[in-house]
Write a structure and sequence with these properties.
The chain is built from five helices and 13 strands. It is an alpha/beta fold. Strand 5 and strand 6 form a beta hairpin.
Length: about 220
């Protein structure tokens, strides 16, 4: 296990913020919002094709738009309800899709991978990429050094999983995987299939999180 010592950067002493301990279980449940928006402004260099319009009914996991340059890469709905607005900016650039959340939310028909995550091991690399693209997960994999969306047709030399959160007011990585340890390991196994090189897992040197410390099939690094 290698240790990475960061020589630059600053921990800003901001008061309050979320609980940082991975062992903390006192998590409150927020009231369901009346509306949510999928904000696409962080995908600056991506040309998006909307697949829904105002008034359409959508379900959780249903594709809302598609990457024009990478057919099949979908951006999936995080909520079920009625599309309230498709917001555009300059040159009709897609900014956000707003959804009025239904009282009783429904999921789209789950694919076999969602119903049984253990099937990751039986999928070929091409089949796994297809599932990740269709389910909206590939839209959250970035390539370095320019932080662009990863090209599914270009095998990565290696993959890094950053299990460290340093920005203010974000819950710790430990808290984010709390109760989802099995799913986290399945995710690592899926990423391992996407590269012929290693998958690197980077976490804090003093973490108590067993999901990180006991992760299988990855090279571990503390920071």
């Amino acid at each position: 296990m290698a240790h990475i010592k960061v020589k630059r950067g600053l921990d800003i002493p901001i008061e309050a913020g979320p609980e940082t301990s991975g062992e903390h279980t006192d998590i409150g449940i927020l009231e369901k919002p009346k509306q949510i928006a999928y904000d696409f402004t962080s995908f600056e260099n991506v040309k998006l094709r909307p697949l829904v319009k105002a008034g359409d009914m959508v379900k959780i996991g249903q594709p809302l738009c598609e990457d024009k340059d990478v057919p099949g890469r979908m951006f999936a709905s995080p909520a079920a309800g009625v599309v309230f607005d498709v917001r555009r900016g300059e040159k009709r650039k897609l900014l956000a899709i707003v959804i009025t959340v239904a009282e009783h939310e429904e999921y789209i028909e789950k694919n076999p991978l969602a119903e049984n995550p253990a099937k990751v091991g039986s999928l070929s690399k091409d089949a796994l990429i297809k599932e990740l693209l269709a389910g909206g997960l590939f839209a959250h994999i970035r390539s370095r050094p320019f932080n662009l969306l990863a090209n599914p047709a270009k095998p990565p030399r290696s993959i890094f999983v950053k299990a460290v959160e340093s920005a203010p007011f974000l819950p710790s990585a430990e808290l984010q995987v709390l109760g989802k340890e099995r799913e986290f390991q399945v995710g690592l196994a899926a990423l391992k299939k996407l590269t012929d090189g290693p998958v690197h897992l980077v976490f804090r040197h003093d973490t108590p999180c067993k999901a990180f410390l006991e992760a299988n099939g990855v090279e571990k690094h503390t920071v």
